Amino acid sequence: MRGLIFPGGREPVLERDRVTLRYPEPGDYTQWSELRDKSRRFLEPWEPTWAPDEVSRTAFRRRLRRYQREIRADVTYPFFVFRTSDRALLGGCTVSNVRRGVTQSASLGYWIGEPYARQGYMGEAVRAIVPFVFGVLTLHRLEAACIPGNDASKRLLVSAGFREEGYARSYLQINGAWRDHILFALLEDDRPVR
Questions:
Q1: Would the pTM of this model clear 0.70, i.e. be above it?
Q2: What local confidence, expressed as pLDDT, does residue 9 receive?
Q3: N or C terminus of the chain: which is more exposed, having fewer CB within 10 Å?
Q4: What residues have CB less than 8 Å from 104, skipping those under 6 apart?
């Protein structure tokens, strides 16, 4: 599905309950940098090591340029998650490592700002992403992984219909160290997400 064209030539906007997801835009910088900076201690244990200029405007511009290249190449679909009622930025969900051919799969990653954690927003965002992955991108499998001690992430994935499939040793480099991960997956013909 190279050069994916969406209906009307527009970028996708996904909605579910209290959240709206769309691609990041230059005007999102202030909300994004403030939320990431405010949530740094909360996020660092679960993410790759932050660059020294992680929340700078220059880094954000680089990120947006990379996203555009990866969207055009059909390998990554990044979304910011907003609260529908007031358009507050809550976090992000990214469908990445899109693999076509016989695999037809991708990986799901997500983050949420500390003020909005454990309020159900990310669960709604993941449930909004699932129909996009299977219906629009026409993939067969969506994978996710989380650190064994991240109970909130495990609960989120299970509640969204993902099934635990295994354990990967030293799977991803998180916060400067290679960390084991529990592997989860959701197939297009699994029970629909409620």
A1: yes
A2: 56
A3: C
A4: 138, 139, 140, 141
